[in-house]
Design a protein that fits this description.
The protein is 60% helix and 0% strand. By secondary structure, the chain is mostly helical.
């Protein structure tokens, strides 16, 4: 929420620069652009800043309660109170908000994954597949722990663990030529074929919440074979 709040407030501050001769408004635009970037980067690193408090401080500095909001804000916040709109505020966004572009929606249906998915015969034991899934699950749990308590040093450790995961899978469970096993793993993870869809409730697998990591692992092991799995009708 802070990403949207800081970005929206920056737009309000930018509006004020068109109407008031005070450097504080242009300064706030710059500060809020940094705050918004910090909000985004907080997904992968920590900063010594209380984002919510900073947004509240800047909002008070902007005197939003006194200056109020420009007309285009009615398009930003549906049902926004009219008494909080200042019709005297002029800015380019007011003009843009009145433009009604033509809406185009394709009538073509969405292509299901099985349109692209090419199934290959499973030559290996299914126990290998489940073991690979277990390894990916363990790595995903470490990834989750990193997201909660991450640091630059932990990132290096995480990369090393991923490399070890790849080496373990490549040397023990999936060689570069095991395209059938790769195909089966992807099918199990995404329920692509009718056979997997029909067994979705009965399958005991560990990739339901780790699909992205599964694809990254398979791509790292052998990108060419993974792309072959999605080569049908292409």
């Amino acid at each position: 929420m802070a990403i949207g709040e800081s970005s929206n407030l920056a737009q309000v501050a930018l509006t004020y620069t068109y109407n008031f001769d005070d450097k504080v408004y242009s300064d706030c635009v710059c500060i809020l652009s940094v705050v918004a970037q910090i909000c985004i980067d907080s997904a992968k690193r920590c900063y010594d800043i209380d984002i919510d408090s900073e947004i509240k401080r800047i909002k008070k500095l902007l005197k939003v309660d006194e200056n109020k909001y420009p007309m285009f804000w009615l398009n930003i916040r549906k049902g926004f109170p009219l008494h909080n709109i200042n019709n005297n505020l002029k800015c380019p966004m007011n003009q843009l908000s009145q433009i009604k572009p033509n809406v185009y929606r394709s009538k073509e249906p969405t292509l299901e994954m099985d349109y692209f998915f090419k199934s290959f015969k499973l030559e290996e034991s299914r126990k290998k597949s489940k073991r690979v899934e277990e390894l990916i699950e363990k790595y995903s749990l470490k990834l989750l722990n990193f997201a909660q308590y991450g640091s630059e040093n932990h990132y290096i450790m995480l990369q090393e663990e991923f490399d070890e995961l790849i080496d373990d899978i490549k040397t023990t469970y999936i060689s570069k030529d095991y395209i059938g096993l790769m195909s089966w793993l992807v099918d199990r993870a995404f329920y692509i074929t009718d056979g997997m869809k029909g067994r979705s409730r009965d399958l005991e697998r560990f990739t339901d919440n780790n699909k992205a990591i599964l694809l990254k692992v398979l791509y790292t092991v052998n990108a060419t074979n993974l792309l072959k799995i999605f080569s049908k009708n292409v």
